[in-house]
Amino acid sequence: MTRTALIRRLGRLRLRRSAAAVAALLLMGVAVDARAADVSSPGRPVRSAADATTVPARSVPPDTHPAPWVGAWTTALTPPGSSGQSAEGFTDRTLRMVVHLSAGGDQFRLRFSNAYGERPLDVGPVTVARRAKDAAVVPGTLRRATFLHEPSTTVPVGAEAVTDPVRLSVRADTDLVVSFRLPTTTGPTTWHPWASQTSYISTSGDHTADASGAAFPERTTSWFFLRAVDVAGARAAGTVVAFGDSITEGGATTTDTNQRWPDVLARRLAQLPPSRRLSVVNAGIGGNRLLTDAGPTGAGANNLGRSAESRFDRDALTLPAVRDVIVSLGNNDLGSNAGVHPGEPLTASQLIAGFGRLAARARAAGARVHLATITPNGKLDARAEKIRTEVNQWIRSGDADGSVIDFDAAVRDPADPHRLLPAYNSGDTVHPNDAGLRAMAECVRLSTL
To answer: How far apart are CA 293 and CA 282, in angstroms?
Structure first.
């Protein structure tokens, strides 16, 4: 064999090995930087970390997935508000986001999103730790997270990045602290405005390795850029996605108590045998509508996100090991009287068709859908209440070919079925309080999941 032929053969072997490594990383859902894999072709620009993309975990066949990942926590992200912190962004700050896990395990990966950014997002360094109190973490539990073994990454506009697996043992129904530095100016953020959970913002600099919370004087009840936490080594057979509006999000729940109905449902499921145990993640957005987008409505208003139909794949179906999706929507469509065409009033048939489309898409993705009846809303007029009644009758009929969760029956006042039971009313006649949210979670038949 000539010297030239030998060099070419060795080059092909290196290329095949690099391609195999890239394929393995894609199976893990990791953002791939072509420089690290050295698989650029002649005459083609080498991709930078800013060009990184991710592969949804659900696209990986179960029998080839390198680890049994399930969703431990997620949030549904929205565009920034028209003013305030989400619109201004951050420069050289460390964010310490506190998230409550529905499933524990011994290995985690984090998903960072720049879905609504206006410029590439620089992220890093990143740490995870068990929470002690407030912004402090348990000494000795801090672990570094990396991106393809690098301490930082750049997330392109409209994309997300996934960390390498991080080894840390954390129990279910406890808090995980995710700290990440934003070294450059972020511009407008990708965020979740109403978290019902206190997180923390540092003074200038890298404070990701601080066990103390002293460098985190600023508090926030929003989550920024962090989209999801997946876990491996959990005793959970799959993921349940709670997909809805502010009632699912926990709009009237007591902050920092984890009493949202998905939280309570997760604790119920945790009591089942391991083979039937499921994690529960919360993809609720306050103000979200099934059929139409809900944008800012005034100065300083938050953008309430794309319609549920528009965000369904990203916020529900691309999460790992999704077995079930509980859909609880409709109140904001009814309250806004927003039909599918501008200026057109909402009809029951439009809502029914929208629910049917979500159910069909869930089934096509291999997940079982559970439609929840629309809960009482004291602010609806007579026409909207009539639509609510008609849609609930259709949901109870089971025509969507999925199980029915009767949230309406769980929280309504038997003496006045158009209103919340007084003991479950948060005070605004729309949102159930903690007791009402618990009643909703307890009405879910676990045998259907």
So the answer is: 19
The residue-averaged pLDDT of 157-177 equals: 97
Measuring CA to CA, how many Å separate 294 from each of 80, 301, 306?
13, 11, 6
Residues 49-68 pLDDT 10s:
323 333 333 333 333 334 58
Q: What are phi and psi of 166, to 5 degrees?
A: -115, 125
For 273, phi then psi, to 5°, come to -60, 150
State the Cα–Cα distance between residues 327 and 359, nearest whole angstrom.
9
Q: Which residues contact 12 (CB under 8 A, 6 or more apart)?
A: none
Q: What would you report as the CA-atom Rg of the chain, rounded to the nearest whole angstrom?
A: 23
What is this structure's pTM?
A: 0.85
190-224 in b/e form (b: 16+ CB < 10 A) is bbbbbbbbebbbbeeebbbebeebebbeeebebbb
Pairing verdict, β 70-74 and 153-155: unpaired
Q: Which amino acid is at 356?
A: G
**Max CA distance (Å), the chain:** 92
Dist CA 178 CA 100 (whole Å): 11
Please tell me the distance from the alpha carbon of residue 245 to that of residue 233, in angstroms, as a whole number: 31
Average pLDDT, integer, range 422-447: 97
pLDDT digits (tens, 9 = 90+) for 244-275: 999 999 989 999 999 999 999 999 999 998 88
How far is residue 260's CA from residue 244's CA, in Å, rounded to a whole number?
Answer: 12
Q: How many CB atoms lie within 10 A of CB 183?
A: 18
Asked, as a colleague might, if the bond just before 193 is cis with ω within 30 of 0, I would say: no
Which amino acid is present at 69?
W
Distance, in Å, from the CA atom of 146 to the CA atom of 151, rounded to the nearest integer, reads 5
